[in-house]
Amino acid sequence: MFAPTSPATSDPGRRGALGPVGLVLAGGISVQFGAALAVTLMPRAGALGVVTLRLLFAALVLLVICRPRLRGHSRADWGTVVVFGITMAAMNGLFYQAVDRIPLGAAVTLEVLGPLALSVFASRRALNAIWAVLALAGVFLLGGGDFGALDAIGVAYALAAGAMWATYILFSARTGRRFPQADGLALAMGVAALVFLPLGVIGSGAKLLEPTTLLLGAGVAVLSSVLPYTLELLALRRLPASTFAVMMSLEPAIAAAAGFLILHQALSATQALAIAFVIAASMGAVRTQVGRRAREKSAA
User: CB neighbours of 285 closer than 8 A, spacing ≥ 6?
Assistant: First the structure.
């Protein structure tokens, strides 16, 4: 559901899986604590400014590391990477607008509905109706029955970010097929940074050039983009994509922990139960999809 195609072809042994599992968990913690750090930076640079700094620093690091080739690509290749970059910019922009208005754990829980819906619709199995109902129950609980406890605009931003996350997954796969290694990701990140730069300049102006702001922005980029992407790529060399996807379903819980520890955003018992429902639905949808693929392979 959340994972790119993994080069791993065999299920590693229990002992061998501990390493890549730790890498994935470290990547998830890095992403969510990076998001928490971004929230603390928003009073200084604004949500648009934070996104701009994250994308710019992440693009610079990835372009330097990957050094993607610019020649030899077709118009369709460039079209794919440009749409991928625009999607990435929209996903980040909408998500940070959401966490500027609602708690981090709630924002990630709502955002994860996008990939969950993609997985449910792609599977087309009756069992997935159960996971969809469970996820909707979680969303209902998260909003206290009518979302009166959450800022409505923040909720809308988080749901829109989820739709962009689902689109991101589709174009990530297409970009991966058209570009070697992480070249497509680096180029798309560059596109995303260029797309968002005018918004950041208009929204934050000279604040983006303050040394403290630049330093914190670089920290957000490393924690939220560079480090987790690197850890996940290393993990996927030894970890099946199905296992990776299940572990990514834990993102709302990690986000809630980061929100509590860094931002002091405590969850009520009802909100914690809501997050648990969405996590269970995500894991169930992934396992259902994996089971279907395994049966198709055995029948072939």
Answer: 1, 116, 119, 120, 123, 128, 131
